[in-house]
Amino acid sequence: MIVEVLDKGFVKLIDSMGTDISVVRAARMSHGKEPIDEQRDKKLIEHLLKSGHESPFEHITFTFHVKCPIFVARQWMRHRIASYNELSGRYTELADEFYMPDLEKRFGKEYSEQVEEIFEQAYRKSYECYRNLLELGFQREVARIVLPLSTYTQFIWTVNGRSLMNFLSLRADSHAQWEMQQYAVAVARIFKQLCPWTYEAFLEYRYTGDLLKEVNL
User: Fold this and answer.
1) Per-residue DSSP letters for the chain?
2) Are 131 and 144 in contact (CB under 8 A)?
3) Is this structure's pTM higher than 0.90?
């Protein structure tokens, strides 16, 4: 399950554990019971989120492979109740891949070509400097310093359902940077497919953002 994002990025689900029923089973354990039937189990998930009882949602976990610009990754990793492993610029030669915004949308058609050339010059020059430093024998961990925040990176993100919902409230929101919003919506798309009851109840009772109520996933 993969969702393409921006010009070269993506969010890819590579592993998961648990479903809506895992939440129900964890919640009913308090009373020594198992899941009962679809209608009552779905109502229980609604009750849990409406009442703020979120610990049962920690029994769902997701592992994503994410490719995004470095400036998006640094915002993402502020969400610390999760596990991350990122592509290392110390051990791996970084690819000539940089994020190019939709400049016509940002600056208008009149200036987009001029602005695009500024971006492309910066990217070409920085990567040329990076390669020159490597050829001169500099270590990769030093040579990478000249690369911009628009350089694409990749990381593995493992997160439980409760933390994922917090991430969506903060990042699938118009106050977040636009690029970050696009990745959050991609995560929400996958979350909805895997846990439709939880996603629906989350939107109704706990979601504090605005984007997910406006887009059709």
Assistant:
1) -EEEETTTEEEEEEEEE--HHHHHHHHHGGGT-----HHHHHHHHHHHHHHT--GGGGG-EEEEEEEEEHHHHHHHTT--SSEEEE--TTTSPPPS-B----HHHHH-HHHHHHHHHHHHHHHHHHHHHHHHHHHTT--HHHHGGGS-TTBEEEEEEEEEHHHHHHHHHHHSSTTS-HHHHHHHHHHHHHHHHH-HHHHHHHHHHT---SGGGTS--
2) no
3) yes
Strands 9-17 and 2-5: antiparallel
- Catalytically active residues are 171
The first and second tokens of residue 6, run together, are 């921006």
**Which amino acid, 127?**
Y
Sign of CA dihedral 195, 17, 64, 157: positive
CA dist 2 and 57 (Å) reads 23
Q: Are 63 and 15 a contacting pair, CB within 8 Å?
A: yes
The predicted pLDDT at position 112 comes to: 81
Check pLDDT > 90 for residue 30.
no
